[in-house]
Each structure stands twice: as structure tokens, then as C-alpha cells.
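Now for one specimen:
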Amino acid sequence: MKVVVLLSQKGGTGKSTIATHLAVCATRDGKAVALFDIDPQASAAKWSERRTADSPPVVRAGAAQLPNLLQQAKGQGADLILIDTAGHADASSLHALQLADLVLIPCRPSAADLDAIEDTIALAQRAKRHKAAVVINAAPVRGHMADDARAAIGERIAVAPVVLGYRSAYANAWIDGRSVEEYDPKGKAADEIRALYRWMMTD
């Protein structure tokens, strides 16, 4: 069973959006997957409430519940657990990091986000047992902002090879609890999520 934590100390990076899309992608790939939402804002849980499909399951939880929840998931044969954390430094994020196999750090390629990511990188690197990588998210589909961000961040931490573009499909799918694969399965956003999922599962 693989445990992937979505981490960001800055709000608005797309953490919950990425978590939900990856969870659906895993479900469509035939994996037994669950998403644990420990963010007090509960964005992923609210997305799930709007969703008509029963899967993937999204469980609202506190950080203290994670060890037992992971043990139960492993006993039930889960392949993948995604954990959506709060958008600020708190004890729950630290708890989640101690349980992670992989930490994904979403970051928009803007100066403000690049400035803010330093604390998140430092937090992720405090726990040594996992791998960590930044995911460039909401990148302009034209221009070189994503490449510039990758170069700047890559000096300090690994960067996922898949860049998620600034595409309306992500927001449109979110409205009624769908993923981009369900909203527009042949679209570029769906291709990006599938590529990120494949990388995540083989990393």
C-alpha cells in the first residue's frame, strides 16, 4: 500500500483538486484507493458530497486517527491512500508526513508561490523516510513560467516531470464532484492527470 501526502503551507495551490483527480484516476485504473481529508476546510470531502459516484471514498479525519485508518485500509487490501492536509503549518501535517511514502507539494509558477514554498520544502524534508517532489500546477499553457519555476525549485528538491496546466476543465469538473477524466476524458487536463498518476505510482 502506498501512502501519498499532498502538502502545502500556502492556500490556493490546488492541493485538494490534485488529490481528488488522482484518487479518481486510481479508481479508474482498478486500484483500491481512499482519500483521507484532514484539512479543516474539508474541500475534498465537500467535493465528494457533490459527487454522484460512490467511489473513491473520501474520509474526513483528524491527524490522530491516521495510524488506525491506515492500518484498517491495509487490512482491507488498499493499494493507495491519498492524504489531503491543511494549507498551513500545523501538527496534523507533521503527523501525516511521518506516515508518507511520497509527498507531493503543489506549487503555482508565480513569484509569490515560489517565495512561499520554502517553508513547505523545509517541512517536507524534516521527515527523512519518504520521497518528496514539487508538482508545478496551474501553469500558463504558453510561455516559459513552468520551466523557470522548475529550474528554481529543482536546485532544492525534486520536481515531478509532469506539469499541470491552467485549464478550465479542472474548475468545471470540480463543480459537480467529477474529475477531469470524467468531465473531458480526451482533454489535455485528463492526459496530465493520468501522466502524473503513472509517475506517482512508479516513483
Notes: DSSP finds nine helices and seven strands in the chain. The chain has a mean pLDDT of 93. Strands lie at 2-6, 33-37, 58-60, 80-84, 102-107, 131-136, 158-159.
